[in-house]
Each structure stands twice: as structure tokens, then as C-alpha cells.
Design a protein that fits this description.
Low-confidence stretches: 174-254
Number of helices: 26
Number of domains: 3
Distance between the termini: 71 Å
Number of strands: 0
Length: 527
């Protein structure tokens, strides 16, 4: 039997356990985490973690994996969940009784910091690991996800750029796993990006000669053009420019480059849900509604079993229908898939997708009160969590939509309480500077105080990225501001609505949703 314990050792990623079975299950869990898929043949992540604990109950990295995955799901807090609090404390205590490697000690510290809400500090610990151990996929993925929650797009870009040259197919992951790292590098941050023309050439070369990817990883050799192009693309995705750029194409042209790359990724692995997800973002940002719908229909059978991301991909599918104005089709997707996945999984990603979609229906003038009431059944238990401000806002949407004053009051009062003395908890501090501000804007909209909502939203519109999430997810706040400005009785706000719509049309031409809003603006003499 292949000794995974030795394989991890050979990769410079020693695991402090004598159990090869524990290493095998650690590897299996990591693979499922990275691919967004519970592998039923392995018993899924939950089954693997249970057997991992049985194989070696004192395996510290097993505890790091279990606690880290629970925390990264953002559905539980050590401040409210005694079981989770005990699990994290037990991990820290266990680590002190063993002679661990520095890498393992940093993992323990990072998970402990994350649990306490110190997200930037946790990511720093994972980055410290990656400086010495660039092949540590768990550190890379935990850091990447944490940056996503923080809205730190530059760090998302750079965390991958720094380690990518070290990767090659000889490490203790399969060639497919190596390729998955490559194709996942540019995530949602491709949106709203401008790209140097040379990037297109580099990516075209990569797509036509995919085997060049497999030569990456040896620092003693010249860096391949693909890696240069990939880094430039990441760089441009953050800045909207490039230091060497003389002529910049439109964001749509750049997204076409990325679409080619992700299409190649799907040729490597047709069930790579992350590449499906990325292409969904491309079509959304370019307002390519028909292409997006056809793509979803064509690939549905390939990603439908990728359970950790399936609900979110259906959410993207529904966005196309809303954009197109086909609300019944979007509602059918919501009722048949999106709502059912949220109630089945109970994960916060699925829950916030439900809130986000229902709020968009509401802005389009649809009566979805009963759906709000049903959703409240699973959001109600999270009103006091305050793990992420992003989550809090979407949970508040559900309590307001369901007209549940008690849940709304509990969320606001507990958020106010923790925000008064945030300490080192990053999200509590964000609640003080931005979160409560946005919560109040939601309340003003619900109370039809549109002028107040505009006055709250407009000054912070360029700060909203701090709540994390993708551009597509945060676009709900852009739409919220436009609707509030359109409905405000203030002439100034109605003129602002005109400016915001012109801006939106310039960035996302040919958007049916924008056109509908422009028609509404014309009706109230804004345009």
C-alpha cells in the first residue's frame, strides 16, 4: 500500500502522526475541500473526518482540518457554540502536548485566531507557512477563503502568485489536482478588470499548448510565459490597469481571455465546478444572457453533483433570468433547487444566496413574502452569530422581508453590543465602521424612507467591498442604491440615479436590467 505518510514527508509537509490511514483520510478531506465536492465513495468530508479521528484521535492536523472547515463555513461561532469552543480549545491544548513542526504550530495558531474573529492575523499565519512551504494546499486554501471574506482582492491575487512557480505534478497530489490549482487561480476577481493586450496572447498560447503548464515549478528554470500572463492577469484584475500597459481593452475583452482559460480547464475536467462558476461570472459581467443560459443548460449534468457549489451555480443561473426579466423562470429555479439546497445543507453560502435572490425579486416588484417567511426558519438561528458582516446583512434581509421584528431587533442589538468593544475581532470592528450603517440603510428602505437610505448608502458605496464576497454578490447593494435614488422624492437623488445608471451602462453595456431601470428613470424625468 502506498505510504501517504512518507509522501507528505517527501513533499516537505511532515505530518505528526504514525497513522498512514490518518494521512490518507487527511488527504481525501483536503481534496474534497479544494474541489467543492463531497465524494460519496469516500463518505464525504464528514465521513472522512470521523474516520480520521478514529485512526488517530491525537492527530493535531486532523483537528486543524476539522475545526478549520467548520469555521470557514462561517455558520458557527465559538462565542455562542460551546461544542465548537471546546473543540478549538482542545486542539490548542493537544498541540501543546506534542512536538509539532513549526508549520503545524502555525496552522493551530491560525485556526485559533480565525475562531476569535482575528481574520487578518489568521491569514498572516497561513502566509508565514506558505513562505517556507509553498506546497501547503491547506494553508493556501484557508488563506484564500479568508481573504475572500475580508474583501482583500490584492491578497487573494498575490497569495497564489507567490506559490504557483513551486507547484509541479510530482507532489503528493494527482496531476488533476495540480491542474485544478492552476485553473482556479483567477477567481471572481476577474470581474471589473482591465487587461494588458499581451495577456490575451499569453493565455491563447497556454490554451493551445496546455502541456506547458506541467513544466511549471522549477525556480532554476526561466519562468514560462503562461505564468507571466497569469500574474499579469491577476495584477490587472485588482488594479484595472497594468504598469506596462499602453492600451487597455474593455473589461469584456479581458473576460474573454479568462473564459478561454476556464473553457480549457473544463476540457481537462468536465466536472470542475469552479471553472463553471467562473464562466458564469464572465457571462454575467458581460450581460451575455443567452450565452450564459445555454452554458448552464449544457453543463448542468456535469456540475449538479458538486454539492458544495451547486446551489451557488443555480443562483448564477437565476441571475440571468432576472436580468432578462423572466421572473417566473427565476422563481422556478429558486423553488425547485436553490431553496431546497439551503434547507438541505444549512450552509451559510446557500442561505445568503437565498436571501440575495429574494431581495432581488423584491426590488423587481414581486410579492415573495411567503418565501421570506419560509427562509426565516433557517436564518433565525443565525441572527446573533456575527461571524461575518456579509452574513449579517443577508440575514437581516430575511427578517425584514418576513416582517419579523423580533429577529430584526435581536440582530441589531447584539451587533451593536459586540461592535461597541470589538477588541481584535475584525468583523466586530467592521460592524462599528460599516456594518451597522448598512443595516440601517436596509431598514430605511423597508420603511420606504428612500432619501435616508440614499444618504446612508451613497457615501460608503466604495467601502462596501470590505464586507467580502464577489462583485456579483455585492452588486445587490449597487442595485439597492439605484432603486432608493429612483424612489426618493429628492430631485438631487433622482439626478444621482441618472448618473448611477449611466455609470452602470458604461461598465456593463446591453444589460436588460439596466435598460429597464433607465426606462423607469425616464418615467420620473431623471433621464
Amino acid at each position: 500500500m502506498h505510504c501517504l505518510l512518507q509522501a507528505w514527508e517527501d513533499a516537505g509537509l511532515s505530518l505528526s502522526t504514525s497513522s498512514n490511514e490518518a494521512c490518507k483520510l487527511f488527504d481525501a478531506t483536503l481534496s474534497q475541500y479544494v474541489t467543492w465536492r463531497n465524494d460519496k465513495t469516500l463518505g464525504g468530508i464528514e465521513g472522512c473526518l470521523a474516520r480520521l479521528h478514529e485512526a488517530d484521535p491525537t492527530f493535531v492536523m486532523g483537528h486543524v482540518m476539522a475545526n478549520g472547515l467548520e469555521l470557514i463555513g462561517t455558520g458557527r461561532s465559538i462565542f455562542l457554540d460551546k461544542e465548537l469552543d471546546r473543540a478549538v480549545k482542545n486542539m490548542v491544548k493537544l498541540a501543546k502536548t506534542q512536538l509539532l513542526t513549526e508549520r503545524e504550530q502555525l496552522h493551530v495558531s491560525a485556526v485559533d485566531l480565525f475562531a476569535k474573529g482575528c481574520l487578518p492575523e489568521a491569514s498572516e499565519q497561513w502566509e508565514q507557512i506558505l513562505q517556507d512551504h509553498p506546497l501547503d494546499l491547506l494553508a493556501l486554501k484557508f488563506a484564500h477563503d479568508t481573504y475572500f471574506y475580508l474583501g482583500f482582492s490584492a491578497q487573494m491575487r498575490d497569495s497564489v502568485a507567490r506559490v504557483l512557480p513551486y507547484w509541479n505534478p510530482s507532489i503528493p497530489f494527482s496531476k488533476k489536482q495540480y491542474l485544478k490549482l492552476i485553473v482556479k487561480t483567477v477567481s471572481e476577481e476577474i470581474q471589473a478588470s482591465l487587461c494588458h493586450p499581451l495577456v490575451s496572447k499569453w493565455l491563447d498560447s497556454f490554451v493551445s499548448e496546455p502541456e506547458t503548464v506541467l513544466s511549471l515549478g522549477r525556480l532554476t528554470q526561466p519562468l514560462p510565459d503562461f505564468y507571466k500572463g497569469l500574474y499579469a492577469l491577476n495584477h490587472c484584475s485588482l488594479c484595472g490597469t497594468s504598469t506596462s500597459a499602453q492600451v487597455l481593452p474593455s473589461a469584456g475583452e479581458n473576460s474573454t481571455c479568462v473564459e478561454k482559460k476556464q473553457t480549457w480547464a473544463l476540457a481537462v475536467d468536465r466536472k470542475d465546478a469552479w471553472s463553471v462558476h467562473t464562466i458564469a461570472h464572465v457571462h454575467e459581467m458581460k450581460a451575455e444572457i443567452e450565452k450564459g443560459l445555454k452554458f448552464m443548460q449544457k453543463t448542468e449534468n456535469e456540475w449538479k453533483d458538486c454539492d458544495m457549489l451547486t446551489c451557488h451555480i443555480f443562483w448564477h443561473w437565476a441571475l440571468y433570468f432576472i436580468e432578462k426579466g423572466e421572473y417566473e423562470a427565476a422563481l422556478n429555479l429558486y423553488d425547485d433547487y436553490i431553496a431546497k439546497y439551503a434547507f438541505s445543507s444549512g450552509t451559510l453560502l446557500d442561505i445568503v444566496d437565498n436571501s440575495s435572490l429574494l431581495y432581488r425579486f423584491q426590488m423587481e416588484g414581486m410579492n415573495i413574502e411567503e418565501r421570506w417567511k419560509k427562509l426565516l426558519q433557517i436564518t433565525k438561528s443565525h441572527v446573533k452569530d456575527h461571524v461575518l458582516i456579509f452574513n449579517d446583512l443577508h440575514i437581516l434581509m430575511s427578517s425584514l422581508g418576513a416582517n419579523d421584528q423580533e429577529s430584526t431587533h435581536q440582530l441589531l442589538t447584539t451587533l451593536q453590543e459586540v461592535s461597541k468593544t470589538p477588541g481584535s475581532n475584525h468583523q466586530y470592528g467592521l460592524g462599528q465602521t460599516l456594518g451597522l450603517h448598512l443595516c440601517q440603510a436596509l431598514i430605511e428602505i423597508e420603511d420606504k424612507n428612500y432619501s435616508k437610505a440614499v444618504d446612508l448608502l451613497y457615501p460608503v458605496r466604495y467601502q462596501i467591498f470590505q464586507i467580502g464576497g464577489s462583485n456579483a454578490q455585492r452588486d445587490i447593494f449597487n442595485q439597492m442604491l439605484i432603486h432608493a435614488a429612483l424612489n426618493s422624492k429628492s430631485d438631487h437623488h433622482q439626478k444621482l440615479a441618472r448618473c448611477l445608471l449611466i455609470e452602470r451602462d458604461a461598465f456593463k453595456p446591453n444589460s436588460p436590467l439596466t435598460q429597464r431601470l433607465m426606462q423607469k428613470a425616464s418615467a420620473v424625468h431623471c433621464m
